[in-house]
Write a structure and sequence with these properties.
Blueprint: H1 2-10, H2 15-22, H3 24-34, H4 39-63, H5 65-81, H6 90-94, H7 103-114, H8 130-144, H9 158-190, H10 194-214
Amino acid sequence: MYSFMSAVYKDEISIGQIEEFIKEDNVTRLKDTFALLPKEKTGPLLNCINELAATWKKRCRENGPERESLELRKEFAYLFLTPKGVYPYESVYRGKKNLLMDKPWEEVRNFYRRIGLEKGKNELHPEDHAAVELGLMAGLAFLSGRELPGTGSEEISEDELSFALQVQRDFLKKHLLQWVPRLCDDIGGKARHPFYRSVAMLAGLFLQADSEMLEPLCVENEKTF
């Protein structure tokens, strides 16, 4: 979920990325994860995924994948590269002057540094861009799934697991949940293509749900980052 959402905000999404996300075995894994949530949370999330998949398949049948790919590129440009769209930066949503690289950007950058991370040299977006923040969560979620990147088998220690879970919980509370739901509402109001409306709704619901799933996992050995 986090990898897909990060990709949506990072650049023009490809047909392959969408098809990978909505394929049956991936959706089944998501449904298994959502089963950990209360039923009132599970329903809306599953409805969003089902609607996204159904609408995408329908439009591809009617218009063809190439036409839909072009429409998505145009929509990305409209939403994220024109004044009529949105500005997916935490500073714009939480800063007093609503400008890029305001105090919230400094806070995000300091958060990264406290946990020993820095933005990669090849990353064009600033640290408080939605794609970068969601990408951080994707990496931490993968790590707390008890697999180290590149190995696929080696388990992390209990301390490392606790660290990864608590960082996710704190970053959600202090940053993502403080502004991304409003970004999603803005995208939902401005998007012309149903794909972006569905993804925005899904992201808003998922962030809150993930926060609720993380909370009971961070009771022991609690530490604030």
